[in-house]
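Incident review: delayed structure delivery

Summary: a single-chain prediction request sat in the queue longer than the usual turnaround. Root cause was a stuck worker, restarted by the on-call engineer. No data loss occurred. The affected request and its eventual output are reproduced below so the record is complete for anyone auditing the incident later.

Affected input:
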Amino acid sequence: MRVERSPIEWTRTRRVPGGTRNVVDSHLMKSLAKTSLAFIVVAAASGLSTPLHATDTEQDRKDVRRVLERYLESVKSADLSLASTIWLQTPDIVAVTPFGRFQGWDSVRNDLYIKFLRDGFTERTLQAENVAIRVMGNAAWLVYDWTFTGTLSNGQTLSSKGWETHVYERVGRNWRISHLHYSSPPPRP
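Output delivered after worker restart:
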């Protein structure tokens, strides 16, 4: 909004006993107040819909992809230190797999990384293909096709394929996995 009147033009001359006096034009001031209030409300509302800091969506996609690469490495190495840098360490994260649902960081760490990956396999490789990433503010999700190959602790080899979805949350300047869900195709009849 551009005001084209000078402060003097917001007043008008009124006759008073003993002379004249400049008084504020109340009609113009009410109009200005209403317009200003509307402008403030619109500005505040639009500010609420934007993230707390400007984001570069392409850079965010690259950052999420880097977390995915670190996740794949954490599965290959069953590395708890690495896993702790990519997962939210809260009780409300969830990992859903064909062999169970794991609620909270303690369960993900103990049941997925220690019992399943580290103790269940001597070797493991997880590969991602057909990765699609979407970022929206401080949340992101990705889906991909996975291929897992590994050697069980009894020496038997295992190979499987399926689909996986991750949900990420931005924590400060970093992305963390807050949800994981994977599916494998049903056995053929």
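Verification: The beta strands are 11-16, 19-24, 94-97, 100-103, 121-136, 139-152, 157-171, 174-183.
Action items: add queue-age alerting; document worker restart procedure.
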